[in-house]
## 1
Amino acid sequence: MALTEDSDESLMDAVKKGNHQAFSILVRRHTDRFYKMAFRLCSNAQEAEDMVQDAFLKIWKNPAIWKSEMGAKFTTWFYRILINQNIDRMRSRKVVGVRDEYLNSFADHRVLQDQKMTMTQEQEMVERAFQSLPERQRTAITLCFYEGLSNKDAAQIMGLSVKGLESLLVRGKNGLKEFIGAYESPISMKGVRDGTTG
Amino acid sequence: MEQQDDLKYILNRRSAPPAPSSDLADRIIHAAMRTPRDEKKTIWQIIANIMNPPMRYAVGLACLILFIAVTYTPQTHTQDDVLTDYEFTMVLDVYDDEQWL
């Protein structure tokens, strides 16, 4: 039976039994998606790749942490691992002034020059505003808005109540507005105030 | 809903993440191949390890046994059984005294 057709959860059960092919399929299926999520959290290409690699190696090395009987989706469960990786990364480095890293990451050889040029002042401002938020607010926003998870799923991943998550989202939004307002960026929340969003 | 629209308006203006390295998935898979897994040992595997220990454990155990053997050599007699010269002289004196009596 071809493993490529199997669900993530049954592949993960096979990984528990030491099936390397199942692990390879999982990695190829989800690397890009998890990389984007990791990049949204840390804003550094190299660190995002390291986070994804470490998370996958963690489940390969110790697959017993996957409890299929809990009924969780693999992707939801993996998000939690990535988030914990990000917390560990920040604790170990005692990150200060993370927001500047994003711009430095564009010196990465893999980022094309034209991509650097197309990063507008507006995008730069939003990126700086996002990176100025506390880690939990950034995680909540990333899960709900960039990954498209429901508030319930995001709250479960973060180990919060739905109300707690919503509180983080509101504070995150206010933080973004304050930051952008303080720097009087070109967007300057004009569209938001005028109600011309979207 | 309005709050979410505001937030979306801001966040949609954030630039998209750059693409990952094209070989990222391959690197992860190869790294996993080189990584040993933490598997639970059965009771038989534990017993087998004891019966056939790795060299460093075997050498360590041999050294420990040797140390115990050298340090705690059993004594063949106790101090109480041995008379000192002084005690032996005293015994002779008593014997002599008894002879005179």
Note: The mean pLDDT of chain A is 80.
## 2
Amino acid sequence: MISCKQLVDLMLDFDDGSLSPPMHLDVEEHLMTCSSCVAYLQSYRLTVRLARQLPADPLPQSLEARLQEILAGRVPPQPPGPAAPM
Amino acid sequence: MGCTRSESAATRFASRPRDTGATVDMDEIKPSLESSSNGHSDPATSPAPETPTPPPPTPEEVFREHLPRVYRLARHLVGNDADAEDVVQDVFVQLMRNLSSFRGESAFTTWLHHVTVNAALALRRKRAVREAHRINEAPDEYLESDSPSTPVRRWSEEPDKIALNRETQRLIEEAIARMPQTYRDVYVLSDVESVPNAEIARMLGLSLAAVKSRLHRARLLMREALAPHFEEVGT
């Protein structure tokens, strides 16, 4: 049977389904008998869920005004950064 | 070892009002693919949608829906508001030049993430902010003590019932700010921006295994940061 530490190391792979079937079963077996690891896994998942709910920040008014000026062609933009692959 | 096995585990579960069985409910521990959608649901590999591709966003939509997310990502990547504003402006200029060429929301958001990451990393290099290698010391040792070597305190509320509020948001933001840079990059892209892991690997020039390893460690750090806030007192 895998240890608690091994289980923690496998949590991400367990949740994204990338564990091999035997390893997946090992994790499930451990969880069936270890309430500490169940609680740990639940809290691990909770942190993921909460982070995904973070709201986006509103743009600072001064920045939005500057971008609107650029959009309107009233001020030249600063030199652009490196181009990204399309 | 942290296992509280058999009857002990059963007692702990049965003692709580919402716990119904003497053994761990398998529904509680089945992989939560929804909560970890970055594993195998890479949109880049999904079949092409059959519906007509939507038109590119209008400048108004860019301002209202996309730039706030660009700003959030930039702020997390560069670590301060002033540099984040420079990144947003850089991204905005590139965006306006290319806006008409986009077809489809997925391609657009993927491109936007790429441009934002490139601009932020370029700015970081320019600013010679190289704290990234802080990661090379200590994290493994730190995380060594993070596994449940002693019985884990249950959290005071059922995890499914806990929602993001202002206080939790503050705790998460502070924990992100404290993360070593290389963990933070991956964490923010994955768990805040929901970018698929394979895409993060391409953006940052990492292997998929490296992305997952850093993400897991970052999540453990985040869990550690939130635990004191949610753990039951005296259990």
Note: Residues 4-23, 33-46, 132-145 of chain B have pLDDT under 50 and may be disordered.
